[in-house]
Amino acid sequence: MVEFPTVDLTSCAREPIHIPGRIQSFGALVAVTADWLIAHRSANLGEFLGLARQPEPGEALTGCIGIDLIDTFRQRLQQIHGNDGLERLFGVQPLAGGALFDVAMHVSGRLIVIEWERHGAESPDRHFGLLRPMTSRLEQTQSVEALCDAAARQLRLLLGFDRVMVYKFHADDTGEVVAEARLPELDSFFGLRYPASDIPPQARALYLRNILRIISDVDDPTVAVEPTIGPAGEPLDMSLGTLRAVSPIHIEYLRNMGVGASMSISIILRGKLWGLFACHHYSPRVLDYALRTTSELFAQMFALLLDQQIGDRQREDIRLGQELHDRLMAQISESRGLLENFDRLVPLLGQVIAHDGVSLFVEGEYVAQGTAPTREQFLAMVPFLNTIATSSVFATDSLQRQLPAAAAFAAIAPGALVIPVSRRPRDYIVLWRRELVHAVRWAGNPEKPVEYGPNGARLTPRKSFEAWQQVVKGTSAAWSDENLRSAEALRITLLEVILRITDNAMQERARAQQQQELLIAELNHRVRNILNLIRGLVNQSRHEAIDIADFTDLVAGRIDALALAHDNITRNHWGETSLRELLDSEARAYLSNKADRVMVLGSDVLVAPEAYAVLALVVHELMTNSAKYGSLCDRHGMLEIGLSRTAVGELAIAWRERGGPPVRFPARKGFGTTIIERSIPYELKGAAVVRYKVSGVEADFVIPARYIKDAPEGEHVKAKDPSGDDAAQQAPAPAGAGLPANVLVLEDNMIIALDAEETLLELGVTRVQLASSNDAALAILRSDAPDFALLDFNLGSETSEPTARALAQAGIPFAFATGYGEIDGLSGGALHKVPVIQKPYSKADLENAMAQASET
Question: CB–CB of 185/253 below 8 Å?
């Protein structure tokens, strides 16, 4: 509040006060000092106010105006707050019975400026009463665009101007008409853009101080303020004056547009100039002060509602950002990174921020969708991106302005919204916008050069206001404040997502490491058990072998049985495995064409892995004995194997041999008999009873229920031979079939290679050549081509596929050998038809493989 000392209002000034400047002629201005409160005339003040006479220079104002009014002025001046405060009085009567005036008072330096205007015919209360319904209509709008449109219409109805526009300042200080209300016959200015030079910075600064400016008649002659210099030698600051005239340049500008009167009202949001209400009339128009004050109040109410609408939009952006956050957290997989989730991420981004393409750059990997630069183009801009702060987003509608290298794709995607999603290494999501070769409707050419005009070396106002088309290239649609807020929310969300994924990945790695350690320990345990089991088989088998050949057959048969059981278990992912499959496998593997004399009665069951290997050895010994000495050693005997469940769920296996040669009780019990009688009771805590009847061997076994599970109906599959064909369809090599004379064995394990060599030589092969790598095998193939080849598929860090293709091209038959259940990784073609045998393989396996390869 401005403090004024008590003064003697009857005193007179001894010297005139010089006040430079010009004012419009429809009002009068008085500048007085706070010390003397004296009057100085402007435009014949006495005549304008209807005073009996014009005050003389230095004459006290109290000599012409009543002392009560002077007291009122002094009281109201005490209520002015701040440097730009303004007080208004309506219906002031300087002299009893005289005319009424509207008065505005403000402080300018050491002077008090009092502006007088004729009081309007209508009561100010009527004008002020219009504010409420006008504001109510604005409150019904639901968007910034609708609010601006309604405000332009309401203000035009209030003021009666031919055209009322809402003029918004953009970030680059250019202006745009975003709403308009006008007479139907007038051309529309809606959407026109005005260069920043139309309203220079000093004018925008003035609009912040003085909200309302009016020109009632562009042809009205202005009146000089006398005297021109104040008592301290300073000019009068008329920034807050309502009656002050405007620049002759602006008057010329309006005349070129055909405007006769104009008024502008500042739209100020939170201390910043958002825009203007720009009012044009095509003839002179004088508005009384009360009506102008009402429009000023309306603009302030509009600014409050506009701020509310913008705030609502911001809150809506926050809500959408939260929804995006929730959707991202719900839909993006915690076990996969941003690259793996890219296809899920892109649609979610499009729901919040409009864009034409997306790039994702994570740990040096680059993926993109839509309109986006290539990997090479993106990598060229990474050094620039690395200079951007990681704590905020970066947006531009023309990346090439900051980064010349972006000119390479400026015609594709010039607009970029960069969202950093990490600190080290720098990772980014970049949203792109296509080039918007759009026409901006400028009200005249914004690049018009400075010319000498009637007012000197100034920018001459444009003589034509037809929309001038400026085609903007290398530029996209601008990223709005809402886009930036959404992008910032997205940045924070993605950081949270990445932290969650990273945390889950660390936990997963910890679990994987624990599982790996457990697997290694379990594998070590199993390998030791297998080695001990094989050692036991070797040691025990030597006691019942007649000679070396018999010993070899015994051990090989038992190891084959274990291997076959292991294959069946692993084929079912170490789960429960079909017992009928085991029985079928043993019958067809060791009985050849006698397998059809084996009948399995009863429903199939699934056996747990820990019991399956035990059963495999027992069944192998029984089947071998039957084939050598029992019912299946001649052409007439039969074997029935019955499967049933006891009342408590145990599995009962009934082995019944019939029709074979008479059976004698064994003179001594060998290792095979021990396996049959003691394995199931000892390892599975089951039961085993064997009876050597003359009519045939009978055996009964009971397997505890915990190792048994019912097989799903129709799930039994016949055992497969190593080549993958049904065992029932596998025929042994024809008796007396010719064997290849020269065989190549490609095997990287020397012991297995030597064993294969010995077995082939025993079968009657004349020559065996060994190779441990593809290079060695291909060298043999070039120098001494074999008649047949046996290829171990997995050779450490490589496969035998190169050798296989060379053999196939040369027309040489071959077979694969593998220690895995199936062969993965073949690139297709004829190699899929090549026979495959599984390790460990027997003589019969090799004979069948050679026969099948020759047929293929």
Answer: no
654-671 confidence digits (pLDDT tens): 999 998 888 888 776 777
Superfamily of domain 336-436+480-516: PHY domain (3.30.450.270)
Q: What is the reported pLDDT for 571?
A: 55
User: Whole-angstrom Cα distance, residue 138 to residue 147?
Assistant: 6
Instruction: Catalogue the long-range contacts made by 681-686 (C-beta closer than 8 Å, 24 or more residues apart).
Output: 683/611, 683/614, 684/611, 684/614, 686/650
- Note the pTM of the prediction, 2 decimals: 0.55
**CATH dotted code for 125-218+259-313:** 3.30.450.40
Cis-peptide, bond into residue 227, ω within 30° of zero: yes
User: Quick count: other Cβ atoms within 10 Å of Cβ 281?
Assistant: 22
Domain ranges in the chain are 1-119+220-243, 125-218+259-313, 336-436+480-516, 542-719, 728-855
Nearest to 214 by CA among 175, 182, 260, 262: 262
Q: Count Cα atoms within 13 angstroms, Cβ side, for 439.
A: 6
* Chain-centroid distance, C-alpha 535: 60
Residue 365 to residues 144, 340, 383: CA-CA distances in angstroms? 42, 11, 15
DSSP letter at 738? Answer: P
Summarised one tens digit per residue, pLDDT across range 69-85 is 777 887 888 888 777 78
- What's the sign of the alpha-carbon dihedral 400, 405, 408, 409? negative
CA distance 278 to 359: 44
3-state secondary structure of 607: strand
* Start-to-end CA span in the chain (Å): 109
Q: Can you tell me the distance from the alpha carbon of 258 to that of 463, in angstroms, rounded to the nearest whole number?
A: 11
- 639 beta partners: 598, 657
pLDDT in tens, 129-186: 888 899 999 999 999 999 999 999 999 999 999 999 999 998 878 889 999 999 999 9
Running DSSP on this structure, what letter comes out for residue 715? -
Same-fold call for 125-218+259-313 versus 542-719: no
The topology under which CATH files domain 542-719 is Heat Shock Protein 90 (3.30.565)
Contacts of 420 (CB under 8 A, 6+ apart): 388, 389, 390, 391, 393, 426, 427, 428, 491
What is the DSSP track for 690-708? EEEETTEEEEEEEE-GGGE
Pairing verdict, β 814-818 and 788-792: parallel
Distance (Å, whole) CA 708 – CA 648 = 12
CA 617 vs CA 544, 564, 586, 608: distances in Å: 16, 10, 10, 15
